[in-house]
Amino acid sequence: MQSFELDKTDILKVKQALEGDDQELLSLLTEYHASEIAILFESIPLESQKKIINLLPIELASEIISEMSHEAHPEELLIDLEPDKRQEIVEELDYDDATDIISQMHEDDQHEILGDLDKEDAVNIRNLMTYAEDTAGGLMNTEVIKVDADMSKKQAIDQIILQSEEIEEFYTIYVVDHDDILKGIVSLKDIIKAKANAKVSDIVKSDFVFVKASTDQEEVADLISQYNLTSIPVVDSNMKLLGRVTFDDVIDVMEEENTEDILKFSGVSEDEELSGNWIEAVKSRLPWLILNLGTAFLASSVIRYFEPTVTKIVVLAGYMTIIAGMGGNAATQALAVTVRRITLSDLTDNQAYKTVVKELTVGLINGAVNGLIVFLFAYFYDDNLLLGLVIFIAMTGNLLIAGITGAGIPLILKRVGIDPAVASSIIITTFTDVFGFLLLLGLASKLLL
Amino acid sequence: MQSFELDKTDILKVKQALEGDDQELLSLLTEYHASEIAILFESIPLESQKKIINLLPIELASEIISEMSHEAHPEELLIDLEPDKRQEIVEELDYDDATDIISQMHEDDQHEILGDLDKEDAVNIRNLMTYAEDTAGGLMNTEVIKVDADMSKKQAIDQIILQSEEIEEFYTIYVVDHDDILKGIVSLKDIIKAKANAKVSDIVKSDFVFVKASTDQEEVADLISQYNLTSIPVVDSNMKLLGRVTFDDVIDVMEEENTEDILKFSGVSEDEELSGNWIEAVKSRLPWLILNLGTAFLASSVIRYFEPTVTKIVVLAGYMTIIAGMGGNAATQALAVTVRRITLSDLTDNQAYKTVVKELTVGLINGAVNGLIVFLFAYFYDDNLLLGLVIFIAMTGNLLIAGITGAGIPLILKRVGIDPAVASSIIITTFTDVFGFLLLLGLASKLLL
């Protein structure tokens, strides 16, 4: 298969086929991978999605639903299906995917769907629903390949082949005792390579990384990334094996966390759906804007205080916005580098100190260079040397403060246990506005009046 | 092993051990995983790193070096080692890791190191160095497990066991013909489960995803993520198998791309190293700030144009900064959501149109709410109804424009093939500054004078 990107032609073809004969639609759809049809679903109405799901074999239909992004609302599609079809699809889903989708429904719908299921499936899904969505428990799948430590090589291989009927992909085999207590891990390769008379306990690797069900998903992602793991076992406090989280779940988590980081950084609530409607967007953003309005009044009160100065030297009104704006941008630069660095690894006290000193230096230099340009403009265009000097000092001072706060505030927040991303550019910009106005107008009223 | 986070105690223990007896240091280090020692290296000087590398067995030493982040400069450590030690370590490295590290060196050092190597290794590394760093060729490892399509089950298993001596981890087995042309993939599980008399060609999966060596790393990451692959084969234009890219490389790529996204979004050059020194930071950020200074002069020229108005109604100076600032923040919000959405998937024309309409609506509502608050302030505090009305209109208009440009500009840039992230908040903020000043001061000079 060619590496594939869904384009307009594909969407058009499917839309046309939806109008026509079922057999033609079916044969067109078989050209696509489940994950491609899932993407295609984002561009067609619910009715058409339903038609396609009803047409396809259960296995493919459930794969498509499991591949649909959270934002495409697979739960709405599922609720809309005939109860029989729905039951078959849910029973075909992996428990973790079924749990994710059912968790998004209203309680009544949840009861209805779980009531229709086979008892064992319903218990497993209800059980998974008790874990918070953003923890290892919320991410894990309970279906794992496991063998007993005292099995022989042959018994182990037979067990693996038997269990692999149910589990499509497996990367690591878990070794447990009779009470399901996790003793170690082993790879299929190691079993194959073992001597014919070897026992599992001879080749088990008992030095392995694991997580608790309550471990935060970000930590799970860090461990999988740090140790290059295809999967990580999830255990309870007695080391009983509960399930596993696989690398593909972690790739999804990373995308999600990165979206949240960019949103928080820009003063948008982290749970705003990118493709949500305007009502959600207003709910997510208006509180931040109103908070910012409060801080903007603070900055403008500095200007009000110096109104007599501005009235006398009205040219300050133009420079004011340049100095505040440049401070905000320099602070955003320092903030982005520092927040991203904290996200990727913790800084020692010494590294934190060096970071602030570095940003202070950068602010001083960038401030002086930009200050010089504005000085020259004031000197030659406005023909006012003293005004030029005041502006030079204000620019340099404001960019210096921008560097210190851009690096220092997220570092302090991290130290006191607050998410450094709340120091979003909105907050830090207010700081440089206030300081920029204070420095420019304060100096001007002392030196130029 | 407990899930692990390196803390100050660990760093302190190692630092103390570095002062003491080699045997004690060695026994302390064996408590850590290679990737943990690699992180630890970020907090200790080059001399201490060198001491540890010289002390440890070659295999572990090379693993640590391969796990060191790009920013910790493993190439500097390698250059600093004795030639014999260095050669042993490089020969132990995977070709892709060796290539990445050697590429970072000066040409003289590259020649020296490659000259010392076994001829085959040197040829392989030189070959990999010809691929651009951010392509599948630059990411791939040339060591893969491959079997011939016409092998029997037993021959294939023997081959896999033989080849797996050299390759620590393998997730997919590649099926090739006698000319190394890739015919399909097969998993170890499928081979084990096959009948005793089966041939590889009976169980090969000939429907698979692959990439060219020149494919951009972001596309490689998208494919691995979309199809939940542990690895993806890299081929030339004749389908000859060149190597494979594994999911762990892609996790690193994703982290790197996300760092670049946040930096670009904040007006920082995407290649600024997060832990780089102040000289690099100034080089990376000063051009953006100077560009912004130019656009800030543009915004301030609007204020200069309306200077007579500001002189007469000096209270406008305070409101001016509120309206421009709020516009900038609202635009940043719309920009963040839109840029992130474009990053995750392409939008159809219809989706793009709907996005702009949504952001326009959000801007209108958020503008009206904030405009109302400022209106009330102007009416009650400044006791000026008409001023309040002017400010209300300016706030609503500016946030409306903020929504349209915050969503529209990145969408247009994407359509014409420019990276939408260059519409960084710096650029878009200038737009709302100019428009905000124009609207407020223009209206004020018509209605209030």
TrEMBL record, chains A, B:
Membrane topology: Multi-pass membrane protein
One Gene Ontology CC term in the entry: plasma membrane
Domain CBS: from-to ranges: 140-201, 203-260
Major localisation: membrane
Alphabetized GO MF terms: magnesium ion transmembrane transporter activity; metal ion binding
Localization per Swiss-Prot or TrEMBL: Cell membrane; Membrane
Transmembrane domains' residue ranges: 286-306, 318-339, 360-381, 387-413, 425-444
Ribonucleoprotein is among the record's keywords: no
Database matches in Pfam families: CBS, MgtE, MgtE_N
Record keywords: CBS domain, Cell membrane, Magnesium, Membrane, Metal-binding, Transmembrane, Transmembrane helix, Transport
ATP-binding among keywords: no
Coiled-coil region: none
SUPFAM superfamilies: CBS-domain pair, MgtE membrane domain-like, MgtE N-terminal domain-like
Role played: Acts as a magnesium transporter.
Quaternary structure and partners: Homodimer.
Family that this chain belongs to: Belongs to the SLC41A transporter family.
NCBIfam families assigned: mgtE
Descriptive protein name: Magnesium transporter MgtE
Taxonomic lineage from the root: Bacteria, Pseudomonadati, Bacteroidota, Sphingobacteriia, Sphingobacteriales
